[in-house]
Specification:
globular, 16% strand, 36% helix, single chain, 251 residues, Aldolase_II/adducin_N_sf, 8 helices, alpha+beta, Aldolase_class_II_sugar_metab, L-fuculose-1-phosphate Aldolase, lyase, Class II aldolase/adducin family protein, Aldolase_II/adducin_N
């Protein structure tokens, strides 16, 4: 985007747009899935978040629903939500500021028009597993590859794409999951349901890594990983296995 011609909007600038209204179904989905994440024990205080994009005729990138800062996904209710645009983070509906992580979510949505939901969590086991010296987690299950469909992208602890979104463009097309050392993870989905399913399978795979590595350290056995070739096959056939109705509609 050419900064010389871009409007001088500020992040969290209140620019109410009467043509943008809360969709009751999107609001209901947001609160439902936010509370589902919390019920699984994946929410830590007010950190982390979720955005859902919806199409709008006046906004080329659509608009997105988000929770405000200072409120956790566990606490959020329908009346708390805000709607922002995607390029600038202007608040189009609602009256509270978004978190710093919202700029990361918006940049992902801007660069990935196929993605309509982003979930970012400070997941305990992911942070702990990588802090224990493991470079990455490996897959032990059939479900992970079919659901995630692209390799995870690992960021070093020195890079925080919540504060500086510039690096995102260098890798986001090739992944549906960003692993952030000492921070947590960010998962992408075409729908809020898919992003939630990918989040659930990711945390399960991290848990399996901890269990398998612990058991093998005790017994002296070698872990049985899913191979890269198997993961590539799963990625290619993921929709046919997990979402056959989607494949049928596309065909």
């Amino acid at each position: 985007m050419d900064g010389s011609t871009a409007p001088a909007y500020r992040v969290n600038e209140l620019t109410p747009d009467p043509k943008v209204a809360f969709d009751p179904k999107v609001v209901r989905d947001y609160v439902t899935y936010a509370h589902r994440l919390a019920a699984r024990g994946l929410v830590n205080s007010s950190v982390g978040g979720m955005v859902i994009r919806t199409a709008h005729p006046d906004y080329a990138d659509g608009v997105c629903y988000a929770k405000p800062q200072g409120l956790s996904l566990e606490e959020v209710e329908a009346e708390d939500l805000v709607i922002t645009d995607i390029p600038y983070g202007r608040i189009l509906q609602g009256g509270r500021a978004t978190t710093v992580g919202h700029q990361m979510n918006r940049e992902i949505l801007r660069l990935r028009p196929d993605v309509n939901c982003v979930i970012h969590l400070h997941h305990d086991e992911t942070i702990a597993f990588l802090a224990a010296g493991f470079e990455e987690f490996r897959s032990f299950s059939l479900t992970y590859g079919y659901l995630m469909q692209k390799p995870a992208h690992y960021l070093p602890a020195s890079i925080n794409v919540e504060e500086d979104v510039a690096p995102i463009k260098t890798f986001i097309q090739d992944t549906n999951c960003i692993i952030m050392r000492r921070h947590g993870f960010t998962v992408l989905g075409r729908t809020v349901s898919e992003a939630y399913h990918r989040t659930c399978v990711l945390v399960s795979e991290v848990k399996r890594n901890i269990i398998v590595e612990t058991l093998c350290a005790v017994t002296g056995k070698t872990p049985e990983y899913i191979t890269e070739e198997q993961l590539a096959y799963m990625a290619q056939h993921g929709d046919a296995v997990m979402y056959p109705t989607l494949v049928k509609r596309q065909g």
